[in-house]
Amino acid sequence: MFPAATDYLLALGIVLQAASSNEEGSDQFPTYLSDQLQGKENLGWQVDPNYESILAAEPDLIIGQDFMSDAYDSLSKIAPTLLAEKLQDEQGIIRMKTSLLHMGDMLGKTDQAKQVIEEYEKKAAEAREKIKQSIGDETVMFLRLSDKEVRYYSKRNYEVLYDDLGLTPPASIPDPTDSMKVISMESLPSINPDHIFLLSSDENETTELQKTAVWKSLNAVKNNNVYIVEYGLWFQGPGGPIGQTKIIDEAVNFLTQ
């Protein structure tokens, strides 16, 4: 079971026996779901299904992710298996509500899915208005430092920011057919966002970035509008209703302070 599928199921009120970990090499659940998974069995990272750990959990039903289609026959030999899908629109943007409804339909939880979506849309609308009043049309960028690369993320995984919250994307945002593009530090001033959500798993890398003249020249930096965000929520959370709801809360907190 992958984090996005775990998110869908918990949002639909389904009690899980076991779930996958937060990332490769981790024995922790996704941080933003950990309070709902206390006492549950951790299956480890399941991009490539670990049949031994899944079999040991003795499941009655397995919910995997759509990229596990090659493993479907093998998983089905352990227990009945369904594959959750992150459904994209014609632009390539992953749509949480469509994906959740699809999952709800497969599990006979359509009404519950519609209720979750209704509550989500209400929350997003209220948050959108608060943020609009606070920052207007100022631009907001999601940026990740990874393995000494600067990664500029598109709308593909972040509909919560650019559609649900109506944030204004910065210049040259990548096409959503690509989740991100690697950019040079020197290109940042031409983008020059007003606000930056910054994700980095390496504090030393972040510190080195913050020392550079290029970084210090950015509007977001000069105006103290850089917000350090956490991997478990901001990288694993998009695409799931629980994750996107919590991202909305954090975005409102950051952008209206």
Question: Could you explain the architecture of this structure?
Answer:
The structure is a single chain. This protein has 257 residues and is α/β, with parallel strands linked by helices. The protein contains 12 helices and 9 strands. It has helices at 3-11, 51-56, 72-78, 96-106, 110-135, 159-164, 188-191, 203-211, 213-216, 219-222, 231-234, 241-255, and strands at 18-19, 41-42, 62-65, 81-84, 140-146, 149-153, 180-183, 195-200, 226-229. Strands 7-6-5-8-9 form a 5-stranded mixed beta sheet. The protein has a two-stranded parallel sheet with strand order 1-2. Helix 4 runs antiparallel to helix 5 (110-135) and helix 5 (110-135) runs parallel beside helix 12 (241-255). The model has no long low-confidence stretch (mean pLDDT 92).
**Uncertain parts:** none
Order of helices and strands: HEEHEHEHHEEHEHEHHHEHH
Work out the helix count: 12
Strand order of the largest sheet: 7-6-5-8-9
Secondary-structure class: alpha/beta
Describe the largest sheet: 5 strands, mixed
Strand content: 5-15%
Residues in helix, %:
40-55%
Query: What is the general shape?
Result: globular
Kindly report how far apart the N and C termini lie: 37 Å
Q: State Rg.
A: 19 Å
| Overall pLDDT confidence | 92
What is the strand tally? 9
Looking at this protein, list some descriptive labels.
single chain; 5-stranded mixed β-sheet; 257 residues; 12 helices; 41% helix; alpha/beta; 9 strands; globular
Brief write-up:
Helices cover 41% and strands 15% of the residues. With 257 residues, it is of the alpha/beta class.
